[in-house]
Amino acid sequence: MHNLSFNERLLAVHEFPLFQWKHVAELMRCDPELLLPFKQPHLLPLNNEHLIAWRQYVRELTVQRRLSWYREQGIGWITYFDVRYPSSLKSIYDAPWVLYTKGNTGLLREAPRLAVVGSRSMTSYGKKAVEAFLPEKAAGQLQVVSGLARGVDGHAHRHALKAGYPVIAVLGSGFGHLYPKEHLGLAKNIAASGLLLSEYAPDRPPRKWHFPARNRIISGLSDKIFVVEADVNSGSLITASLALEQGRDVCALPGPVFSKQSSGTNQLIYDGALPVLQPEDLSIVRRPDSVS
């Protein structure tokens, strides 16, 4: 373990099943080089349960074998301290310590990015809006980011691929447990020409709380967030709220006042979000991002 690079040590700490983002942050504060976990773990600010489990984890840890398997599976990984880590995401409070990748990581160096999110129960109105407001003629001007969920997210990915947009999908699980399963083919298509991203190790199954956490990455990567359809309890409103906290622009599709799927978007507009009435409302001024 003593010959691991700093990034490999961070990867190992990040993948410890009992650690959440806050635990890694605490370790980084007390030991910025992450040497103590592998040399003197008893000095770490860990409770007894975590310490026992950590020692067992380190005894069984084979980082190089795991990294070799990642390469065989076409999986890349980028830590927060890697020059390839997108600067837009690094600017948020709780940026992921590690990003796992499948596909074209060059997209992380390029901007502008538009997040397209919305209800899992997409209506024909929302479907038509996605297609109308992401025309083929604008495909060279934007990257489209979404969460691979059912409904608006999945349709945004499919339409963007068909129209020629670069596409980034942010997952709420590891690549080995893709969710929802019916989007496995869509995920393969995105990996072939765009990029799949996850902060979860490939063997990590989806958990309920992963998806709200995933939303901060969608908004953090993006310059502008377009909420297509959402009811007042939709997770898409979490993304919009995070986007505002991160200083991103939020816009929404106005809809019928009696439609449940438009109640959340109409509320966003009432609260100050830009109503999207034409494709030009989704335009973004290009800004610099991280470099390789």
UniProtKB/TrEMBL annotation:
One of its GO terms (biological process) is DNA-mediated transformation. Residues 78-282 form the Smf/DprA SLOG domain. It comes from the Bacteria. InterPro entries: DprA, DrpA_SLOG. Belongs to the DprA/Smf family. PANTHER family: PROTEIN SMF (PTHR43022). This is DNA processing protein DprA. The lineage of its organism: Bacteria, Bacillati, Bacillota, Bacilli, Bacillales.
